[in-house]
Request: fold
Amino acid sequence: MESLLTDRVAVVTGGASGIGREIATTFATHGASVVIADIQAAPREDGTPTHEVIERETSAEAVFVECDVTNRGDLEAAADAAENLGGLDVMVNNAGIVGPVAPIQDVDWAAYEQLRSINLDGVFTSCQVATERMIEAGNGGSIINMSSVAGLVGYANITPYNLAKGGIRLLTYGLAAELGAHDIRVNAIHPGIIETEMTRTDFPVVGGEDEADTLEGIPLARFGRPEDVANVATFLASDLAAYVTAESIVVDGGQVRTA
Ligand code: NAI
Reply:
């Protein structure tokens, strides 16, 4: 049966866990072949590796490539894997970490550089690798960059994360201007608080002591689920979004645009 992503090949960085895992499995459900590009195959939240879930539960192909997004060679290897599956159509730059949580004067430079190299430089390099392949193939494409509500508004004590996520937003707009002529669409997703290990463990909002107060500020009165983001990514990857580029889609239950 023809599905939204039939015959498409996608790379999802950070696809072993959380939001990336859900994007990869949802893409596969819609017919895409998927390359999971992550530093580890095992999901942070435990369970079967994403590529094995896809192979078990769908008819789509899935492979895991050990890939640190700070390493250009690893990103090239992920793109090679996509070419082995038919050619790179969709690049989801999702891998990211919270990084240092502290007032700016207490931010350790090495921790800042690590955050920036993964969350911002990694996305930049991945866009370079993906666009080179997509332009050469001449079939257009869709690049989806995972920003955050922290790429739209400022939050105290996570300024390095703000900086990287805001940078992703403008990288997205600039690239969209550059690549439209090649029919390559570039969009950003800005999730609010989504229930993953990131928000359960690294930056514990979910289950944290301020949970009730935080939920009061969310019109839809719940935290997001990975599928809330994956469904938007699926739309952006598909032809339903054929005329959508340079767009920032907020997936936060209404949190940042209401008071
Ligand atoms: P997660 O921590 O559950 O999963 C992140 C995945 O990225 C893991 O599989 C990890 O192994 C991988 N990863 C980490 N460093 C990597 C590297 N150097 N190279 C390749 N893979 C690497 O995180 P979650 O929540 O799924 O976040 C995914 C993206 O969504 C991140 O960019 C995050 O900043 C963003 N985001 C998450 C929100 C949330 O509330 N969970 C809110 C807004 C944005």
